[in-house]
Design a protein that fits this description.
mainly alpha; Fumarase C, Chain A, domain 2; 3 domains; two-stranded antiparallel ribbon; 19 helices; about 5% strand; Fumarate_lyase_N; Arg_succ_lyase_C; L-Aspartase-like; argininosuccinate lyase activity; Fumarate lyase N-terminal domain-containing protein
Length: about 525
């Protein structure tokens, strides 16, 4: 399935400025404290808001209310400080909705054109940083709609016909997720390409393979690096599958029950490049499965990246010394002049925690909600935005790290004799001699014990030593001992044998479009 990445906006929304505290000579008095920290009701914001009850704008939904909300309620319930990031998708949905309304004769073609032109103007203002986001207008929908009414007048008041903020927000969110998934898929492929290129530089380099963080068997470094590529491919597959379920249109479901007006939901779905409209209007506005699935896919990918980070941080330590990151992807210490830290990969490991936390937040948010829409769902956006931003950053920095490290071949090779990495291959030798595997396992275990006693490696045992353990050993046993011989004996599909790894590398180069 081909994807076209559209430009995504991940700028941080402006945050309220911290109160400025003037230096106070001598001791700090209660009066000083009160001056430095005014009451919450008087706190300033970075976005425009009404200064008094008299000047506060009437809510677009306020017809049945006689009083306005308090300042505390307004601050607590607003979401414009973060959902402004959906503006592009909100305008996109509004354009499709206006066109559909005109097509169904619910508004005139003239009104439609006026609305579309007004939305274009607002989008340009936002892109140029000239649009005033107002907190008293609560969210991205009301800000854009109120600005449209100010700009074009009566035609704009018809835009919300057969539409609720309930179906509007979930439409915006699905469109945003669709683009975000495309962006992540591109970053995953970039990391995969970098790993395959890195693996191609060390085709014959043998490294210790570990289980339980103890030395287990020798493996080719490209085999290990390609294991990351395989994990990333599954991450991409989960996101592709998630995108398929994201791509259904809730617009026109209204608050929860649909509408008695003759709208065409299939047309809006088509115009917004959705697969189809959602079949059940209650499900359409209350469903956040697509957010949960997206966050879950991100969490699994983040855990994979964290595992890469953990391995590379270990390998960069003096205790391992297997890889050296370049200065471009390293940091130093403020007190220890000699330090060179692989901080980017430590932060990859650390940021995985917040990605998993974002999933837990929305899972907990959704677990007690009755059908259909509930205001709690306003809280799904910040964890979603945070997860996507974190995963994009993690993928980017892992790619740069992979492009700026070198593996220390001499250090790795000098470390290989330790750990009896060829023991399992020796067991395979005995199986080929007709000895049952469990018996072979015991024989090799006794051979290793002899090595421990003699302080030598398996390949350094004399044939007589081996025969003292079991008479089946013959001179050809030495073709199985030593890490190079051991690696060359692997022949099963997907194994670390040289021919198998070369085939895996070639398959990935073809799949990812990497030229030789």
């Amino acid at each position: 399935m081909a994807f076209t990445s559209q430009s995504l906006i991940f700028r941080a929304a402006a945050s309220p400025p911290c109160p400025r505290i003037a230096p106070s000579p001598g001791r700090v008095t209660l009066r000083d404290h009160r001056a430095a920290f005014p009451p919450l009701a008087a706190a300033s914001t970075s976005m425009a808001s009404s200064e008094s009850e008299d000047k506060r704008e009437a809510k677009l939904w306020g017809g049945r209310f006689e009083e306005g909300v308090t300042d505390a309620v307004e601050r607590f319930t607003e979401s414009i400080s973060y959902d402004w990031q959906l503006y592009k998708y909100d305008i996109m949905g509004s354009k499709a909705h206006a066109s559909m309304l005109a097509g169904q004769g619910l508004i005139t073609a003239t009104d439609r054109d006026i609305i579309l032109e007004g939305l274009d103007q607002i989008e340009r203002l936002i892109q140029e940083g000239k649009f005033e986001w107002r907190k008293d207008r609560e969210d991205v929908h009301m800000n854009i709609e109120a600005a449209l009414i100010e700009r074009v007048g009566e035609p704009a008041k018809k835009l919300h016909t057969a539409r609720s903020r309930n179906d509007q927000i979930v439409t915006d969110l699905r469109l945003w997720c669709r683009d975000a998934i495309d962006k992540i898929l591109i970053r995953i492929k970039q990391l995969q390409v970098s790993l395959v290129i890195l693996a191609s530089k060390y085709v014959d380099l043998i490294v210790p393979g570990y289980t339980h963080l103890q030395r287990a068997q020798p493996v080719l470094l490209p085999h290990l690096l390609l294991s990351y590529v395989e994990q990333l491919e599954r991450d991409a597959g989960r996101l592709v599958n998630c995108r398929e379920r994201v791509n259904f249109c809730p617009l026109g479901a209204c608050a929860l029950a649909g509408t008695g007006l003759p709208i065409d939901r299939f047309q809006t779905a088509k115009d917004l490049k959705f697969t189809a409209p959602m079949k059940n209007s209650i499900d359409a506005v209350s469903d956040r499965d697509f957010v949960l699935e997206f966050l879950a896919a991100n969490s699994i990918a983040a855990v994979h990246l964290s595992r890469i980070g953990e391995e590379w941080v270990l390998w960069a330590s003096e205790e391992f010394g297997f890889l050296t990151p370049s200065d471009k992807v390293s940091t130093g210490s403020s007190i220890m002049p000699q330090k060179k830290n692989p901080d980017p990969m430590e932060l990859v490991r650390g940021k995985s925690a917040r990605v998993v936390g974002d999933l837990m937040t929305v899972l907990t948010l959704c677990k007690g909600l009755p059908q259909a829409y509930n205001r709690d769902l306003q809280e799904d956006k910040e964890p979603l935005f945070d997860s996507v931003k974190a995963v994009l950053g993690m993928l980017e920095v892992c790619t740069e790290f992979a492009q700026n490290i070198s593996f220390n071949s001499k250090r790795i090779q000098s470390s290989l004799p330790a750990g009896y990495l060829d023991a399992t291959t020796l067991a395979d030798y005995l199986v080929k001699k007709g000895i049952p595997f469990r018996t072979s396992h015991e024989i090799v275990g006794r051979s290793v014990a002899l090595c421990v006693y003699k302080q030598c490696q398996l390949a350094e045992l004399e044939l007589d030593d081996l025969k003292s353990v079991h008479p089946v050993f013959e001179g050809d046993v030495y073709e199985y001992l030593g890490v190079e011989n051991a690696v060359n004996k692997f022949i099963s599909y997907g194994s670390t044998g040289s021919e198998q790894v070369k085939k895996q590398l070639e398959d990935w180069r073809i799949q990812l479009g990497i030229s030789s």
